[in-house]
Specification:
Bound molecules: pyridoxal-5'-phosphate
Oligomer: single chain
Largest sheet: 8 strands, parallel
Order of helices and strands: HEHEHEHEEHEHEHEH
Number of helices: 8
Distance between the termini: 19 Å
Strand content: 15-25%
Number of strands: 8
Structural class: alpha/beta
Amino acid sequence: MSRSAQIQGNLAAVRERMSRACDLAGRDLESVTLIAVTKTFPASDIEILADLGVTDVGESKEQEGHGKAEALAHLELTWHFIGQLQRNKAKRVASWARVIHSVDRAELIPLLDSREVLIQVNLDPEVPGRGGIHVEQIARLAQQIAASSLRLRGLMAVAPLERDPAQAFAVLHQSHRELVATYPDATWISAGMSGDLEAAIAHGATHVRLGASILGSR
Ligand SMILES: *Cc1c(COP(=O)(O)O)cnc(C)c1O
């Protein structure tokens, strides 16, 4: 099978999963955006995805994402940065990524040059080093972002390693309700990966980040 046929089949299967999850949750499929996570895969795969109607791609490393975004500048893609954001690379990330999902501390704010951003929430507080802030810290960081040139779009999280993702995504959903009450423009919930997109959609995800289910194992 050609790479293109393989990706097309995988994409149809995940779109079907998304559609079923939306039906179960009583939501419109149009309310969930698929972000194809293309880290470790070549630019040629992204060209195939673009041909198949994918408009949003996610990368998690500055250098790798930067190179692909430059090589594919002729395509009309929205580039999302979903990896942990190092201070010394933040400015460069903001040069190619339109949306940055992983803002988790105020020192990054002045480096991100009026990008659209999400606050990354750590749903696994027992596990250090995973990135993201505790839910109790969201309000303060949101206030700092709102006072800057950045556009606060919502919250992002990765499911916990050991606990039930549905329970964690429910916590995220509740935190998002509180956020959006103060910042009506912050409508996004970026949650759900290949293994847990159903749970994320059930709990309000507006953006799912899918890698392996579309492109294969890394
Ligand atoms: C790699 C990655 C994904 C995609 O995960 P898959 O299991 O391949 O779908 C989503 N979000 C983040 C933050 C990632 O690093």
